[in-house]
Specification:
Serine Threonine Protein Phosphatase 5, Tetratricopeptide repeat, three-stranded mixed sheet, single chain, 12 helices, 304 residues, Arc Repressor Mutant, subunit A
Length: 304
């Protein structure tokens, strides 16, 4: 079991297992969290010193780095013993991932990686539970209250992962007829991105399927207002079509039209992957239909 627990989503905290939070000096915290976020890569000492102490002369920034590294290793020595938290040499350093530090962003990433290529409608109950248990780790944006340049991109990436997982759960709730739960997940998405049009469409669908057509149409009004205020645009045609279907009480229950995700900087690859999967399924379905047609032709003694 990990003896050191680090939470970076929301207010950052560091804990010894079953003990009070560790109080680290501000610059020790910054170095530690930077190394944890970019734990997969070794770091050149000079570039790291410039990244965190760019305001100082190079010789002084390297001195500050040496001092802060010593403070960090001293502060967490008990929690990582007998392994060292850091792997160091004269020019490079990185986090020793064998120390077993528990990290909330790592847990979120692992869950996302396991389901990122699975459309929400096809999530199993077990996969839904796995996502449900992990999204509560998101207690707020990454390193809430921090404004260093190096954490901004990662902040956006983790929020994209979180919102994508919530939308997958919304899709899954439609498939499993858990409409009320899906609405709750949608509200969590809009808390962070009120102009996320696909989420509004899913909420319109969920409300309608739950038997609340007026709430579905009200959701469209909220969507239109958010798009106008945030982006100065009108709802997309598919959103208008969905509104008209709901008004006419002719909702199409097929949710595949919305099975596209804007997840991470690699979203184009994910979209292509999903498209290839869907095309293969269509190919298989067409082949099956062709076989059935051939059988019917033979039965009716009709030549092709």
């Amino acid at each position: 079991m990990s003896t050191l627990m680090v939470r970076l989503l929301g207010k950052p905290t560091v804990y010894h297992y079953e003990q009070d939070a560790l109080v680290l000096p501000a610059k020790v915290q910054e170095l530690f969290f930077y190394l944890l976020l970019y734990r997969r890569y070794p770091h050149d000492r000079d570039r790291l010193a410039e990244q965190l102490w760019g305001y100082a002369e190079p010789s002084r920034s390297r001195k500050y780095l040496r001092q802060t590294l010593w403070q960090l290793q001293t502060a967490v020595a008990d929690a990582t013993s007998p392994s060292s938290l850091l792997i160091l040499d004269n020019n490079w350093l990185h986090i020793n991932q064998e120390t077993g530090v528990w990290l909330d962003v790592h847990e979120l990433e692992q869950t996302f990686t396991a389901v990122c290529d699975i459309p929400g409608q096809r999530l199993s109950v077990e996969q839904m539970r796995s996502i449900q248990s992990i999204i509560d780790l998101y207690q707020g944006e990454l390193l809430t209250g921090w404004y260093q340049d190096w954490c901004i991109i990662e902040r956006e990436r983790f929020q994209s992962i979180y919102l994508a997982l919530l939308e997958k759960l919304m899709d899954a709730c439609i498939a499993h007829r858990q409409y009320e739960n899906g609405v709750v997940y949608g509200m969590r998405v809009l808390h962070y991105d009120r102009a996320r049009e696909r989420t509004h469409r899913l909420l319109m669908r969920l409300h309608c399927l739950a038997g609340n057509r007026s709430a579905a149409l009200h959701q469209f009004d909220q969507c239109a207002a958010a798009l106008a205020e945030e982006l100065n645009i009108k709802p997309a045609q598919r959103t208008l079509t969905l509104r008209d279907q709901i008004r006419a009480d002719q909702l199409n229950h097929d949710n595949r039209q919305d099975n596209h995700y804007l997840l991470t900087p690699d979203s184009r690859e994910l979209s292509v992957s999903q498209l290839v999967t869907e095309l293969k399924e269509m190919q298989s379905h067409l082949a099956s239909l062709q076989q059935e047609v051939q059988i019917l032709i033979q039965q009716l003694n009709i030549s092709p």
